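Entry:
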Amino acid sequence: MIRRIIQSTLLAAIVCSTACAQGKKSFETVKTQPNVEELKLSRVDIKSLKKNKSGAYIIFDGSSLNGWRGYGKEHVPSKWSIDNGALKFSRNPNVDKPEGGDIIFAHDFKNFELEFEWRISEAGNSGVFFLAKEIKGQPIYISSPEYQILDNEKHPDAKMGVDGNRKSASLYDMIPAKPQNAKPVGEWNKSKIVVKGNTVQHFQNGVKVVEYSIRTKEWTELLQASKFSEEKWPMAFHLLNNVGGATKSGLIGFQDHGDDVWYRNITVKVLK
């Protein structure tokens, strides 16, 4: 832990020194990337999947985990399973030596509409990631924006952050979902994430609740005002500043936050 803190401090000092020499901290600091290694793990041919009536690929049909695996792994962790047609994370699954971790669909998406339904356990927390990269030794959220999944009534995160920016459907720790129209615990919510170029939109229960632009000056300012700032977390700041990397694409994933959560009817429509 101490070694990691020292490394992070040194990296932050180097970046700050460079920025100060330029006379300002700017979006251009993203050019000085920390030394990260992207894992080269299996990918799925999206064209092998069925489409629904609206032309979206069905990436989870309620009966199979084909195409899914753990983040940074080549298998599905045992805490993820199929429960009555839903993809479920179980805090205490009835298996020997239960294994947790975030789960991803193994295909890189660039411009898309991701639709899904979710319900959360009491006082539960989870999240949906997109444009994520698999970085060796690092969690998924170091490179991915997060669509928050939360019990707004009983989880403490709902009262943290700024102006409700940790409540469900929010861009986690950056932009609050407004209006906040999540349904009570135990009920299914319908969500959609749209990524087109630099524009990202969050929908919850049929209403657009968040919109923002990534890879822009405004995006950098959002990061700087969050827990992912250059001073607090330089590696996350640089990866998120250029979210999606050179390909501007990445993985879709669901978070293991230690609480029971269910996802179903997961589809992706690929946009040009």
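The domain at 38-270 is CATH 2.60.120.560 (Jelly Rolls).
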